Amino acid sequence: MKSVNKSSYIWLPLAIAVSVVVGIFVGNRFSNQKTTSEYDRKLNTILNLIASDYVDTVNINDLVELSIPQILSNLDPHTVYFSAKDLKAADEELNGSFSGIGISFQIMNDTVGVVEVLPGGPSEKVGIQAGDRIVSINDTTFVGASVNINSVSSKLRGVKGSKVKLGIKRSNTSKVLSFVVTRDDISVKSVDTYYLIDKTTGYVKVNQFGRNTYDEFINALSSLKQEGAKRYIIDLRGNGGGYMEMAILMVNEFLPENQLIVYTKGRDKKDDSQVWSDGNGSFQDAELVVLIDEYSASASEIFSGAIQDNDRGLIVGCRSFGKGLVQKQFMLPDSSAIRMTIARYYTPSGRCIQKDYKKGEEAYEAELLNRYNNGELYSKDSIKIDKSQIYKTTQGRTVYGGGGIVPDIFVPKDTTGITSYYIKVLNAGLFQQFAFKYVDINRAALKKMKDYKQFLRMLPPDEELLNDFVQYASQKDVPARWYYINQSRDLILSELKALIARDVFGNSAFYPILNRNDKTIFAALKALNRHDAAFPIRNSF
């Protein structure tokens, strides 16, 4: 039996070695293997024949690169190959940092607009400002159809200490300004925001489980506790996972001693493990609600499953994604890598929540769409439960395996205000564009605002803001249709206010504004006010 020890991380090497969802284990297993097997000889023979006798000249390296994903596609959907370049990009987010220029940006009318400049970052040091437009990179014009998120990121990110020259168009001058920015390490936050929803309820939004997530998470909880929080809402909606050990450390903060958090079983016994709580968590007595949706996966499901199966808190929202497979990373000689499924993980009750993948990758990817089509996201009765996989929590409540975490309290997707007009302006990116333009025009006044609450008070009346947006959308070829606009009024205004606030204050303002109309949060607060989330949970909902 193993227990979590957050101070010494004694258990961590084993957990990393056998149970990393998105692997960080680096080995040279493949490079050390002798290519003497029958399969190796067959593959090498084919490649040599192509190189020597095929009618056209073929780049063998390119052929191998194309072949590896095809081979792996016959396994499970989460066994994947990364080229050296793709691996670096994939690791950066989870590792909590990358080398770049320290801005957040938005693409508007085929031009890169600077939304936010990281305080103390490389761009701020040379004088780049929010609202600037990047029109050239390294003396090459950078506007037009070729401008997209990937192309911008590839040009702005680079080796720490390297330089990039930017041509900047600023609203108060007709001249193109030139700045040389020295790239530096940029931290990536996995806790988007935390704040008090009311006097005693702390809210924490976690977007992924990266290398620094536990540190950010415990800092958020501790800060909220100092502000008066006695109960917590942990929002894992849209969180696709990451490092398993981060989820384990976070769960440990809420569990009493000797509670099973997760266990793994692999084909090889060395990939079997169990992790138990150590009883040193600082929030064992706090009432807890965890929010999930259909995009909550992997480490999010480990966290949710441990909380649910130990009757430690309530799970609220929609059924989670259903990823119960464990990957380990194997490095290849050219610095590429394979992340291979080596085990399944199980929640404390014994559930494997991996959904079916035997019908192929196309069917696997279509499963979420099927949930929409089948009405599952709008009706609890439409949730497809495998009643052959019945399990019990520590208090005897019924839970199910075979496809995600089914929430204790189901909250249907909110379709209020979703009209054809709303869909058109959303798909056209007009909310973001209008917000950026509004901040650009009113930047001087907005900079004087101390926080988002003061910001909300200085905004124009709702009708004026709505009319301004509708007029802007009309100029962008989305004509006003007031019948639908009035139906979408509250949704449009909430979206606009949140996005404008984010452009000024970041995510710390975005979520508090957006969450004011969030029915899943309302359901969580209702449960907390009834004390339904008090440990141990005995009631079924």
General description of the model:
This protein folds into three domains: 97-187, Roll (Pdz3 Domain), CATH 2.30.42.10; 191-326 and 344-414, 2-enoyl-CoA Hydratase, Chain A, domain 1 (Alpha-Beta Complex); 420-517. A hairpin with a 4-residue loop joins β10 and β11 (201-206). It has 541 residues and is of the alpha+beta class. The radius of gyration is 25 Å and the shape is globular. Strands 3, 4, 5, 6, 7 and 8 form a six-stranded antiparallel beta sheet that branches. Strands 10-11-12-15-16-21 form a six-stranded mixed beta sheet, sandwiched between helices. Residues 7-35 have low confidence and may be disordered. 37% of the residues lie in helices and 20% in strands. It contains 20 helices and 21 strands. It starts with 11 loop residues before the first helix and ends in a 12-residue tail after the last helix.
CATH topology of the largest domain: 2-enoyl-CoA Hydratase, Chain A, domain 1
Q: How many beta-strand elements?
A: 21
Average pLDDT metric: 88
> Per DSSP, what share of the residues sits in E-state strands of 2 or more residues?
15-25%
Précis, in short:
The chain is α+β, with helices and mostly antiparallel strands and 541 residues long. The chain is built from 20 helices and 21 strands. The chain folds into 3 domains: 97-187, Pdz3 Domain; 191-326 and 344-414, Alpha-Beta Complex (2-enoyl-CoA Hydratase, Chain A, domain 1); 420-517.
